[in-house]
Specification:
Number of strands: 13
Number of domains: 2
Structural class: alpha/beta
Helix content: 40-55%
CATH class of the largest domain: Alpha Beta
Strand order of the largest sheet: 3-2-1-4-5-6-7
CATH topology of the largest domain: Rossmann fold
Mean pLDDT: 93
CATH architecture of the largest domain: 3-Layer(aba) Sandwich
Distance between the termini: 10 Å
Number of helices: 18
Strand content: 15-25%
Length: 406
């Protein structure tokens, strides 16, 4: 069985947030065909208790603790002309040495880098096949951040967008293939980096439709006689925090005026101070971390995805659709998704439009929306189906040889 070095900017377990969900399913899939040497950073001390799950499927695991705030301060203090902060935020000398030792002491047949922030660990290292999964065009995310912030953050974010795009282009040109989470995201990067066009491909996210299924029975987490709208996500992530603030302040007053029983639940770990303040608004609830988001989704009258800044495919949208819940999303949250607006979910660009569509759902005008949403997920977004594309990009001869022996 060939050996693969898998590097991730975050420990890919437990799969409780977008990037970790994708990394975990990629890792599980690749472990069927490769001996995995996993190198990763641990930015949440609670994740350490799950290392045994990774060691169960990996030949070796090199996991290095980092403190996110310290990493950011160090990156700012060491800022260099032309180098993105991202490259330093996700750099750890211990992991760099572990990578060097792995490449010298083991016969590594392929290297898989998860996210552009990890490209630094393999830049300028010729040898085994190298695949970079950028997932999203992160440089574009920083450009969009700048549009919503004032100086000095606007200037800092614009700098990060420009310097990170330069790194992304260099890495995509140097690596054997660069993957994105959707065809739309791949095409967008190809327009930004036409010199890399022939090395760009995509592998979509999926969803575990058995775990996220309407067949499961959960206790209702909401009071009786209430109408409940739910948003799920990690709440110290700025696009999520911005989304719920926009919805709570712009959409909820329009809804509450027509439907006094309506309640908005912000469900997710590590709510920022700004998110916690939203709990002081009428009809708004901030849960913080919950053991399982599924009861909140299962009993939601609708799930909302009011993101104004978003890249790629939103796992939160796929999970809600898999549980056959009506989903109302902004165009940004819908982008990259192969679904039909009006049949599988509703897409709204303004507060007024979103409030009207949610009232329609509450009043029963979209009775078939949830069933149609689940049908799309089952047909197009199973992990087994989406990850088949990975085999064609990552060392086809090696994969073929392994399959022949299986």
């Amino acid at each position: 069985m060939p050996d693969l070095l898998f590097l991730s900017h975050r420990m890919p377990y437990p799969p409780d947030k977008g990037d970790k969900i994708r990394a975990w399913h990629l890792l599980q899939h690749l472990a069927r065909f490769y001996r995995i040497h996993l190198g990763c950073l641990i930015d949440d001390p609670a994740d350490r208790e799950h290392l045994g799950e990774l060691r169960r499927i990996c030949q070796r695991v090199g996991a290095f603790d980092v403190h996110p705030a310290f990493q950011k301060i160090r990156a700012l203090a060491g800022m260099r002309r032309g180098r993105p902060l991202t490259a330093d935020v996700f750099f750890h000398p211990g992991l760099a040495q572990w990578v060097a030792d792995s490449l010298s002491a083991h016969r590594i047949d392929a290297v898989f880098m998860f996210s552009s922030g990890m490209a630094r660990y393999a830049e300028g290292r010729p040898g085994p096949l190298r695949i970079l999964d950028m997932v999203d065009v992160d440089s574009e995310k920083w450009r969009e951040y700048a549009d919503y912030h004032h100086w000095p953050l606007r200037a800092l974010y614009r700098r990060e967008a420009a310097t990170l795009l330069a790194l992304e282009r260099r890495a995509a040109l140097e690596f054997d293939a660069t993957l994105f989470v959707s065809q739309a995201e791949a095409r967008h990067f190809a327009a930004l980096a036409p010199e890399c066009r022939d090395k760009i491909a995509w592998v979509e996210n999926g969803v575990d439709a058995d775990r996220f299924s309407p067949a499961h029975l959960f206790a209702r987490p909401f009071p009786a006689d209430t109408v409940n709208l739910v948003f799920t996500g990690t709440m110290d992530y700025w696009p999520n925090a911005d989304a719920v603030e926009w919805f709570a302040r712009q959409v909820m007053p329009l809804l509450a005026g027509r439907q006094p029983e309506v309640q908005f639940h912000i469900v997710g770990a590590r709510p920022s101070r700004a998110v916690r303040r939203l709990a002081h608004l009428p009809h708004v609830h901030v849960t913080g971390r919950v053991p399982d988001v599924r009861p909140f989704i299962a009993h939601a009258d609708a799930v909302v995805a009011p993101l104004r800044v978003a890249r790629g495919i939103q796992n939160k949208v796929l999970e809600a659709m898999a549980m056959a819940r009506p989903v109302v999303a902004t165009p940004e949250a819908f982008a990259g998704l192969r679904a039909r607006p009006g049949r599988d979910l509703l897409v709204c660009a303004t507060p007024g439009e979103m409030a009207r569509r949610l009232l329609d759902i509450i009043e029963g005008r979209y009775a078939g929306l949830g069933a149609a949403a689940r049908a799309v997920v089952q047909h197009d977004y199973s992990w087994c189906q989406t990850l088949q594309r990975l085999d064609g990009f990552l060392a086809p001869p090696l994969c073929s040889a392994v399959r022949a022996q299986a």
